[in-house]
Specification:
The protein is mainly α. The longest helix is centred in the first third of the chain and has 31 residues.
């Protein structure tokens, strides 16, 4: 029960924040249904941009077909763990009628899942930077030392 001046102020602020979040959620849902936001490759790693540029430019189409994004297990794991943990937490909160404390092991599991995703992004970025770095030019071989001229006989 809301009582007093500050109780009404806090209730009004809470309602305003809830309406703002609902408005943002409705805008995102509208964009999803309109096709403005595409979820086609939600859990996929992006395709190689160089291969896409070559394929779109029409250069060597027979040598390099355009790449399609490939599924990412780390993104899928992060998505599933996040939804499972959020769903279980929501059910527990609704059953008890109050906010329940999240066990540390669950937070750790979610952190490991996020860390797996971050590590996969780091490994992919390191591989791409290694591919992009030009190969070191071989060291120039110095010419053989000059031989002294033979005196004429």
């Amino acid at each position: 029960m809301v009582t007093g001046f500050w109780g009404y102020i806090s209730a009004g602020v809470a309602i305003a924040i809830a309406l703002l979040i609902i408005g943002i959620a409705l805008a995102v849902l509208k964009a999803l249904f309109d096709g403005t936001i595409s979820l086609r490759y939600l859990i996929a790693e992006p395709a190689d941009p160089h291969a896409q540029a070559v394929a779109q430019a029409g250069n060597e189409p027979h040598l390099r077909p355009p790449e399609t994004p490939k599924a990412s297990m780390s993104r899928f794991q992060l998505l599933i763990f996040t939804f499972v943990i959020a769903g279980v937490y929501l059910v527990l909160c609704l059953e008890s009628g109050t906010l329940v404390q999240i066990p540390e092991n669950v937070i750790l599991l979610l952190g490991v899942s996020g860390g797996t995703y971050a590590a996969s992004k780091g490994i992919k970025a390191a591989g791409e930077s290694r591919k992009a770095a030009p190969a070191a030019a071989p060291a120039a071989v110095p010419p053989p030392p000059a031989t002294p001229d033979q005196p004429a006989a």
